[in-house]
Amino acid sequence: MSQEALSDSNIKGWEILSFDKVKLQSTKFPIVIGKLRVIFYEELDHCTLYLNEWSFSLFKDLSVLKLFEDPHMPLVYLFQRDDGVDSLTFTEIPQLEAIKKFEIILNHYARFEQNQEKLLRMDDNFLINSIEDKTIASFFPRENVI
User: Fold this and answer.
1) pTM above 0.85, yes or no
2) What is the chain's pLDDT, residue by residue, as a tens digit (146 residues)?
3) What is the DSSP letter of 44?
4) What is the 3-state composition of the chain as percent helix, strand, coil, each rounded to the nearest 5?
5) Tally of domains in the chain
6) Residue 40 located in a structural domain
């Protein structure tokens, strides 16, 4: 865990948690695998997630949904945006303690849900074209998309 300060408009943030080999699937970015970093901005009492060029600021009015609880499936989290949904898939199983910390952060700073029946808004291109293994696409049948 790095305590390296980041500079964003003179507000300093610190990396409080990170995960290697996380896959990002987004309507705005090509599929990438990289290091997911959780940055905490103490002055703002705020956390932002970063993976390469992608970022997601955690706010209580934005939903974050954990899709799977099965130990044989990769961990998948969906992040609701005004213009679609992004997904993060942990391609390697992280330590349980690190995931617990990650979910505490999500629960505190966003509207975190683990209800697998909750549907988020997704556009057809994201459902059909950007998911290689179709895991999420099969979980959200087209007729259930709002």
Assistant:
1) no
2) 333 444 446 778 899 999 999 999 988 888 999 999 999 998 899 999 999 999 999 999 889 999 866 667 789 999 988 888 999 999 888 888 999 999 999 999 999 988 544 433 344 444 433 333 333 333 333 333 32
3) G
4) 20, 40, 40
5) 1
6) yes
